[in-house]
DNA sequence: ATCCAGGTTCGGG
DNA sequence: CCCGAACATGGA
């Protein structure tokens, strides 16, 4: 074992079927994204490791991901936590072979899988953030959703100023739990969105809702628990299962992005019917979440 | 102006 | 159980 110092980069070997640039393309799809940025083929983000704010920078160097902490040195524990964080975000431990096998020749997914081969389902490991992002994005266009998130995060998230730039983290649940609907209103959040966010924050803060608690349950139970939250319906429950809990068979059938992508790819004059979508749900099992993500990717301009 | 956005809740048949 | 309306706002 070679002794390494705390500021040496971490090198992660990437799995087969991994395309960092495709991942970056998704991560960089909106200019108002406040929780990370993509620059010169690098992914840069502020995260907390053992109570310390750390700016991480991830790039691809031959067959490895090169991970650096920009503002501090990391101890062994922090490095381990960081690696599992990246494994979660980039879904490094999934083998996509079966996915590509299943989709080969599929009229909707066949070409997409070739074009985007190696794209990973980019995750949102934090349950609170995933739930909030659902609520923020409901029934409004994505660009506006990113703006709303930006205002919330800039006003309430933990911040680090480093080398002339500001880096933000998603607000802690206890901060959001103690906010009022009125505060949200001057960031143009509807009263409904604001109260849903506060309610979810209260549940998380109280410890009544945890990621590990959910992961120990059956898929049906998880779905029911999530939908029991005010503001979380079928779409949001599936979204959280996809992006946070990494349940492969999650499938937000009502998602307009999903439906529009299918409409475009099949060159159809109208969106697919619910019956068609349920058929795809069965056909693509247990890779519905990945299929959905690839379809979303196809919508990036 | 009108319609659609990565929906959800609520009240009524 | 299913259906329409209301919710707020921005962009095409």
Write structural notes for this entry.
The radius of gyration is 19 Å and the shape is globular. A five-stranded antiparallel beta sheet has the order 1-5-4-3-2. It starts with 9 loop residues before the first strand and ends with a helix. The chain folds into two domains: 10-93, DNA-3-methyladenine glycosylase AlkA, N-terminal domain (TATA-Binding Protein, 2-Layer Sandwich), CATH 3.30.310.20; 127-297, Endonuclease III, domain 1 (Orthogonal Bundle). 47% of the residues lie in helices and 13% in strands. Helix 11 crosses helix 12. The chain has 15 helices and seven strands. It has 301 residues and is an alpha+beta fold. The chain has helices spanning 20-27, 76-89, 97-103, 110-115, 127-137, 142-156, 173-177, 181-185, 191-205, 211-215, 219-227, 234-243, 256-265, 274-284, 288-297, and strands at 10-13, 37-39, 42-49, 52-61, 64-69, 159-162, 165-168. The structure holds a DNA duplex (13 and 12 nucleotides).
Strands, helices and their partners?
Blueprint: E1 10-13, H1 20-27, E2 37-39, E3 42-49, E4 52-61, E5 64-69, H2 76-89, H3 97-103, H4 110-115, H5 127-137, H6 142-156, E6 159-162, E7 165-168, H7 173-177, H8 181-185, H9 191-205, H10 211-215, H11 219-227, H12 234-243, H13 256-265, H14 274-284, H15 288-297
Antiparallel strand pairs: 1-5, 2-3, 3-4, 4-5, 6-7
The chain binds a DNA duplex (13 and 12 nucleotides) through residues 134-135, 137-145, 147-148, 188-193, 196, 230-236, 239, 252, 254-258, 260, 296, 299.
């Amino acid at each position: 074992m070679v002794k390494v110092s705390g500021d040496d980069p971490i090198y992660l070997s990437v799995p087969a079927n991994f395309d960092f640039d495709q991942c970056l393309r998704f991560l960089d799809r909106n200019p108002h994204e406040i929780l990370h940025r993509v620059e010169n083929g690098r992914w840069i983000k502020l995260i907390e490791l053992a109570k310390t704010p750390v700016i991480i920078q991830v790039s691809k160097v031959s067959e490895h991901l090169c991970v650096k902490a920009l503002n501090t040195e990391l101890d062994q524990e922090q490095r381990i936590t960081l690696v599992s964080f990246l494994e979660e975000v980039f879904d490094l431990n999934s083998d996509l072979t079966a996915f590509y096998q299943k989709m080969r020749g599929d009229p909707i997914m066949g070409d997409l899988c070739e074009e985007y081969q190696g794209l990973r389902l980019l995750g949102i490991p934090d349950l609170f953030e995933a739930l909030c992002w659902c609520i923020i994005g409901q029934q409004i266009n994505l660009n506006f959703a990113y703006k709303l998130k930006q205002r919330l995060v800039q006003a309430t998230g933990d911040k680090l100023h480093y080398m002339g730039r500001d880096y933000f983290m998603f607000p802690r649940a206890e901060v959001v739990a103690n906010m009022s609907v009125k505060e949200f209103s001057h960031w143009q959040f509807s009263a409904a969105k604001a109260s849903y966010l506060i309610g979810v924050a209260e549940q998380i803060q109280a410890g009544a809702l945890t990621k590990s608690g959910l992961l120990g349950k059956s898929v049906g139970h998880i779905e029911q628990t999530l939908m029991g939250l005010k503001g979380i319906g079928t779409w949001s429950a599936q979204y959280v299962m996809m992006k946070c809990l990494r349940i492969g068979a999650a499938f937000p059938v009502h998602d307009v992005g999903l439906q529009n992508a299918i409409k475009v790819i099949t060159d159809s004059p109208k969106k697919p019917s619910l019956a068609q979508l349920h058929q795809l749900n069965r056909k693509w099992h247990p890779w519905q979440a990945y299929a959905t993500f690839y379809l979303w990717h196809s919508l990036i301009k």
